[in-house]
Design goal:
alpha+beta; 8 strands
Length: 197
Amino acid sequence: MNLIILGRQSALALAELESIYGAGAIQPVSDFATLAGSEVDIKRLGGAIKVAKVLQTIPKGLSFTELLPKLESLIPEIVNELPPGKLKLGFSLHGFDDASVQKLNRAALQLKKIVKASGRSARIVPNQNLELSSAQVLHNQLTSRLGCELIVIKQASKTIFAKTSAVQNIEEYAMRDHAGQNVMLLSACCRRNWHRL
């Protein structure tokens, strides 16, 4: 199961997903995220920011305080699946009203100690907001072999844990968007000149 974090135009992004993968394959989780049963190719999507593999779903909306022990038990499992080398870890929280950036960064340092105790070294990507941007995930290589962004989404009745597998490449997207604008300008110029002939 994949978790998809949607962009600012979430209704449009959801419609795009349903048109590509079918409405039956998509399960909205919130106004900014949805679940998809099939594999998702982020390069085909304009409205998705991140795609993540669901690791675990707990049938309870955890508070930030309840989340910490869960992360402490989950992080060693994730770390054991990564190849040898220095790890890069990042965290994104959605729906945690009782969390703050300061609390999250403090918790991340505690999790780094747990990783170190397991014999691995790690670098934590500091949060400026509760969620890391796609630019931060790309720049810090959190989808690489030694990278991991853990996304946690809290709802009233459940908490979803997912590991980011792909992010929207903002540089490629900007170039594609710019190229599209150039084509539109060229087309407009041709139409204008065609009418003069």
